[in-house]
Amino acid sequence: MAAMSTPAHSVQRTPEGWRTPGIANLHSHAFQRAMAGMAERQSHPEDSFWTWRETMYAMAARFDPDTLHAVALQLYAEMLEAGYTGVCEFHYLHHAPDGRPYEDPAAMSKALIAAARDTGIRLTLLPVLYMAGGFDGRPLGERQKRFGHDVDGYLRLFDSLHAMQDDALRVGCALHSLRAVPADAMHAVVDALPRDARLHVHIAEQVAEVDECLAVRGARPVEWLLDNAAVDARWTLVHATHLVPKETAGIAASGATVAICPTTEANLGDGLFPLRDYLAAGGGWGIGSDSHISVSPVEELRWLEYGQRLATHHRNIAVRADSPSVGTTLLQGVAASRAQATGFDDVDDHVLLDAAAPILAGATDDDVADRWLFSGNRNLVREVVVGGDRVVIDGHHRDRDAIALRYAKAINQLL
Ligand SMILES: [Zn+2]
Question: How far apart are CA 273 and CA 253, in angstroms?
Fold first, then answer.
């Protein structure tokens, strides 16, 4: 079982107002911020993740390091304003659109690092290993070529980025998915990584993916991973959506973190994570904004709980025997997984909520977390401090206007 410390208070009363630890965003593809709200027209009666992916690939093909930097700046400033103080960037747009590496093979990664530094957000950069177009090992399609590496090329990229680590940057490894990474390559890469490197993987987002894994590898994705890798606290399993009870218990027992992305999983029609059983098994979890159709920890946490209510016809699901408040339990959950999933220990990041907001009038230690997460849509984040640096003041990122201008230019270029 994961030995994770649980903070006593999720939101604390201080002389400056209600204060809560910065929230880690465990899953992001920054470039997808540029297409938020642009894939909501039916192209086929059976529209699904797989038809959405076509739109996403068309957008991905247009990016270069400059436009990626501009879009990531906007996204990271929005994250900070929403109360996220760290982001795990699951980054696979490595090469030029035709698949050839840029003159600096790390140019796209460095665009993300620069955006994180410029905005002041903590970055856990997870360069993605992406090798195959499916479980059968078929080569990457034309539009997937800019994602691809062989094992040696990947490790060279990883090493060059890992050497850049500092107080605000951690570099870990992402395996795109079991369908995109053959088993021998997974072992070669995992064995070559430094012991401190975090490992993230898209694991079981789609039913078709589960079926294909069963057909080719003879096991469901989570089942296969638990049997074939030393899954432990270094691992984060993203979209552990489709689980059977044995897998739910297996992840919880491994000490791994699950990254749940409720708004994206809803937007893509993925399915619902078995939260109640997983919490009962003591599993560690956090949230991610993934495709960025929403950039708000409030909305992720709210919909994590609401999805369970809609499915079970009950209320107040995310609780523990010693924590009857849903809001407190949810905030404690994301705080408890933070260091383990991001690689940042003991960070001094915090968020101050707007004590003058009517929604918080008369709030108490016992109900402030519930009021923050479960009432209204006004952003209550007033101030955000990352590593002692005040990056959001009066609800605005310090460079909000300049970043928005650059973003608008980049979007016009991309469209
Ligand atoms: Zn993802």
Answer: 17
* C-alpha 402 – ligand 1 centre gap (Å): 28
pLDDT of residue 9: 63
Q: Other C-beta atoms within 10 Å of 42: how many?
A: 8
**Strand, helix or coil for residue 310:** helix
Q: How far is the CA of 26 from the centre of ligand 1 (A)?
A: 10
Is the Cα torsion angle 206, 187, 87, 301 positive or negative in sign? positive
**Could you tell me which residues come within 8 angstroms of residue 245 by beta carbon, excluding any fewer than 6 positions away?**
274, 277
- 277 alpha carbon to ligand 1 midpoint, in Å? 23
Cα 228 to Cα 187: distance, rounded to the nearest angstrom:
9
pTM of the full structure: 0.96
CB 166 within 8 A of CB 132: no
285-334: per-residue pLDDT in tens? 999 999 999 999 999 999 999 999 999 999 999 999 899 999 999 999 99
Q: Where are the alpha helices (DSSP H) in 268-346?
A: 275-280, 297-312, 326-342
Per DSSP, 363 falls in state -
Number of alpha helices (DSSP H) and beta strands (DSSP E) in the chain: 14, 15
Q: Give yes or no for a contact between 125 and 170, defined as CB atoms under 8 angstroms apart.
A: yes
Q: What is the pLDDT of residue 389?
A: 96
Residues identified as active-site: 239, 290
Do residues 22 and 84 make contact, with C-beta atoms less than 8 angstroms apart?
yes
User: Which residues are paired to 238 by β-bridges?
Assistant: 202, 259
How many A from CA of 28 to the centre of ligand 1? Answer: 7
Tell which residue, 286, 284, 302, has the closest CA to residue 294: 302
- Three-class HEC string of 131-184: CCCCCCCCCCCHHHHHHCCCHHHHHHHHHHHHCCCECCEEECEEEEECCCCCHH
What is the distance in A from the centroid of ligand 1 to the CA of 339?
A: 20
Residue 361 pLDDT exceeds 70? yes
